[in-house]
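Work Package 3 committed the consortium to producing structural models of liganded targets before the mid-term review. Because experimental data for this complex are still outstanding, the team generated a predictive model from sequence and the ligand definition alone, so that downstream docking and mutagenesis planning could proceed in parallel. The input record is reproduced below exactly as it was submitted to the modelling pipeline, together with the SMILES string for zinc ion.
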Amino acid sequence: MTLTTHVLTGSVIGTELNNPYAIAATSLAVHFLIDSIPHADYIHKKSTLKDSWKIILDLAVGLLLIGALFAIKSTANLPVKNILIAIFFSLLPDLITFFYCHLKMKFLRPIKIFHENIHFYKNSSPKRQFNFKNSYLEIIISIASLGILFLPRL
Ligand SMILES: [Zn+2]
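The resulting structure, written out as tokens with the ligand in place, is given here.
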């Protein structure tokens, strides 16, 4: 799943909840929950550090969207701290995977294994190939999150 989707769902959590601990716990839970639905991944077993540009681009898109939200709705009208806490915890499981795989932090293995096993399709499955067909549920989640974040409240 893209980091952009995790940033967007996290931002929804950050705008809807008030308690920072509840925000952190919910953000982690929602990360694993949406990772468990069928989706594509642009990073897979054969990815190397050279593929990091994809991660950087993906993260930049997500953060630019939130930057646009802050600009359009004004930070005065948004719970900025809660949104930032939510984004951090929504990204944490993927950050842990990155630390485990590329910085060889072996003590993170149980979390990495849990995270990988929660996915609907195995890492090498063609159903995880990065394309629109494999990503439609993720696209729906992202568009719904954008709607909640950007559309005016009645
Ligand atoms: Zn994940």
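Reviewers should note the following from the model. Residues 34 and 49 are 25 Å apart (CA to CA). These observations will guide the Year 2 experiments.
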